[in-house]
From TrEMBL:
The gene is pyrB. It comes from the Bacteria. This is Aspartate carbamoyltransferase. PROSITE patterns: CARBAMOYLTRANSFERASE. Residues 2-144 form the Aspartate/ornithine carbamoyltransferase carbamoyl-P binding domain. Carbamoyl phosphate binds at residues 54-55, 104, 132, 135, 260-261. It catalyses: carbamoyl phosphate + L-aspartate = N-carbamoyl-L-aspartate + phosphate + H(+).
Amino acid sequence: MQHLLSADDLSAATATEVLDTAGELANVTGREVKKLPTLRGRTVVNLFYEDSTRTRISFEAAAKRLSADVITFSVKGSSVAKGESLKDTALTLQAMGADAVVVRHGASGAPHRLAGWLDGSVINAGDGTHEHPTQALLDAYTMRARLGRLAGLKVAIVGDVLHSRVARSNVRLLHTLGADVTLVAPPTLLPVGVSAWPATTSYDLDAVLPDSDVVMMLRVQRERMGDSYFPSVREYARRYGLDAPRVRRLPEHAIVMHPGPMNRGMEIAPEVADSPRSTITEQVANGVSVRMAVLYLLLGGKG
């Protein structure tokens, strides 16, 4: 595999290899010197056209722990602000000898276009409302670490599915790995064609909770909403927010996830986000190990 553009690029065997490799690389974070020489001499470019904290820093930390040279490309201080096209930016990176480009872009499909212009590997760090495959991998890694398995798990993904690239990648990857996914949202926040996805749908969060092993809350992406998709924040929180009374409806072993950033008090109550069931900070930590594994498997064997 040269690129990671979609969760559909990952077979069950390949995804499991990434998760297993991440488990081995996680041991590095416990060492005094958190570095391996694996990618010494390689150049990884972080090309972020959209704002990001967790994903950008996570990829930067992952590449540096593997001893790669890291260039973080800021759109605001670049020729992109002067109107340079994505293709011309790609050709510039190609001329500079980038071995891997980690790209986040507001346009769905932008990483696929880059992959056609670059000789190096392209990793999709989020494109529009399309996909975010490494987030799905770190979520799967976290579920497996907490619950010991993925096959047969019942996972509820709740909230703004319409605008969520995280939901799209998770549905694809979790289905590949044998989990059963239920999408829970108001009708206005489910995309057209969702019936073709490998998941069931529900409008009733309370009915889904008692049978769920994992509840993944999605951020309501108000910055992508030009229209009113629900009556009010208060009404949304009442119908689809995860609060303490709802958590008590979950099985005792169930965990609560969120890809971040969170709207505390809207899709998730503060006491739930900070509870022992919550894996939110674990997801961030696991993201570094998983992205190390992706970079290692894409670049480590070259040459």
